[in-house]
Amino acid sequence: MADSTKPTTNPETLALHAGYRSDPHTGSVAVPIYQTTSYEFQDTGHAANLFALKELGNIYTRIMNPTCDVLEQRVTAIEGGAAALAVSSGQAATAMAIQNIAATGDNIVSSTNLYGGTWNLFANTFKTFGIEVRFVDPSDPENFRRATDDRTRAYYAETLPNPKLQVFPIGEVAAIGEELGVPLIVDNTSAPVICQPLKHGAHIVVYSTTKYIGGHGTSIGGLLVDGGTFDWEKHADRFPSLNQPDPSYHGAVWTEAVKPLGPIAYILKARVTLQRDLGYALSPFNAFLFLQGLETLPLRIREHSRNAAAVAQFLQGHSEVVKVIHPSLQDGENRRRADTYLSGGYGGLVGFELAGGLEAGRQFIDALQLFYHVANIGDARSLAIHPASTTHSQLSPEDQLATGVTEGYVRLSIGLEHIDDILADLDQALSSVRSAVAAE
Ligand code: PLP
To answer: CA-to-CA distance for 415 and 349, rounded, in angstroms?
Structure first.
């Protein structure tokens, strides 16, 4: 039984209660949607204190909002972090996580196993900002050390990247980062609750809340969570923007300014400089929808995981399928990492390769009836995509292979329907591939 004198760390409880009890003005139990741009100051002294960060409070919804604040507090509690910042998309969260500490002439070292949008941001858009991204194979964590120099500002990776679904060695790379003075940023979008990257040594977590946190395919959003564990002052030469006077905030030195507030230099700077200047703000309405999603996230992710494991087993024995990609079917070091870093399930994603290649991939997708054919993951509904004819079709066959996509590869995001109905749809779609191939 939990000790009632200590704050709970159970995600099921935190997802419902952390950061809010009821509205002090109305008693509203549901978190209200504070659909306001601005907040009345009590007097000029109060206003001056807020702007000078002597007191933390609401100024303008681009920078903070009470509905977004509850979402931030709730996710911070679940992750075991120090503070969070809600933003308008997962892409905004990743961009801001890096831009907050890297500038022209700097570099970051990133795992090669990335969501395609992140890959583009890193390989192309960051290049135009003068930020170099050094891509390394995460199968050997030491590759991160080898790529580090004195202009390296962060390590970046995804906990459970698709299509390969090989869990990232969070603890190993975080330890290298601790040694060299480089924080590890982890995108935990595909593994909320089943992985808490901060507990394994990561320093910053980012999310596309669009996926499992929202959970119902309705809203785009993102989050950055600051673990509060990275010693920015110890590595002052590497992080001048946190340790030297910031001209954009009348000379504030962020590591000094936060001393009365806690270890939140990174996230406070992100909020009051980048969020202020670039305006990646999340709408309060979307924050409300994410809060609603969060309430059932611990339940849902377990059920997604259970269904996905059953799908992996089913596909494994199917004659049209040459390979199934799911952590439960991995062995060796990949399996060890999956079992070290994931608990309570392996997540909702499954990949597989059809014997019939490109044509079979197309036929399979077209034959699905229950699954939606969409470029998304993490919906309550089951989703499928054939990357070679869609998301990866602009890549050369060699580049497709490097990202883990073969011509017959299909990605499934397994939903919360009854497992019998999920398997029946997969079975009939696979049969139609079989009959199409047989009729040729
Ligand atoms: N990170 C991962 C792992 C994703 O799958 C995605 C989107 O598919 C993103 C980030 C980007 O998120 P958003 O679409 O909310 O910008």
So the answer is: 9
Q: How far apart are CA 386 and CA 406, in angstroms?
A: 10
pLDDT digits (tens, 9 = 90+) for 237-284: 999 999 999 999 989 999 999 998 999 999 999 999 999 999 999 999
Q: In the numeric block, which tokens belong to residue 395?
A: 């890549």
Which residue has the least CA distance to atom 11 on ligand 1?
90
Q: How far is the CA of 133 from the centre of ligand 1 (A)?
A: 18
The token duo for 346 is 């392996």
Can you read off the two tokens belonging to residue 347?
């997540």
Q: What is the CATH architecture of 13-285?
A: 3-Layer(aba) Sandwich (3.40)
The minimum-distance atom of ligand 1 relative to the CA of 91 is 16
At 119, which helix (H) or strand (E)?
helix 116-120
Q: Give the count of beta carbons closer than 10 Å to the beta carbon of residue 279.
A: 12
Supply the pTM of this predicted model. 0.96
pLDDT for res 398: 79
Atom of ligand 1 nearest to the CA of 94: 10
Kindly give the distance from the C-alpha atom of residue 113 to the centroid of ligand 1, in angstroms, as a whole number: 13
Could you state, in order of their start, the residue ranges of all structural domains in the chain?
A: 13-285, 300-439
DSSP letters along 49-66, please? HHHTTSS---SBTTT--H
Whether the per-residue pLDDT at 72 is higher than 70: the answer is: yes
Is ligand 1 within 6 A of the CB of residue 208?
Answer: yes
Cα(54)–Cα(211) distance, rounded to whole angstroms?
36
Is a pLDDT exceeding 90 seen at residue 157? Answer: yes
Name which residue sits closest to atom 5 of ligand 1, judged by CA.
115
The residue type of 274 is L
**Closest C-alpha to ligand 1, atom 13:** 90
What distance, in Å, lies between the first and last C-alpha atoms of the chain?
63
Question: Per the CATH hierarchy, to which homologous superfamily does domain 300-439 belong?
Answer: Aspartate Aminotransferase, domain 1 (3.90.1150.10)
Please compute the mean of the pLDDT values over residues 46-51 and round it to a whole number.
91
Residues linked to residue 411 through DSSP beta bridges, in sequence order: 351, 385
pLDDT of 436 higher than 70: no
Expressed in angstroms and rounded, the spacing between residue 118 Cα and the centre of ligand 1 is: 8
Burial call 374-385: b when 16+ CB within 10 Å, e when fewer: eeebbbbbbbbb
What digits encode the pLDDT tens for the residues 377-421?
A: 999 999 999 988 888 887 777 777 877 888 899 999 999 999 999
Residues 6+ apart with CB under 8 A from 391: 116, 375, 385
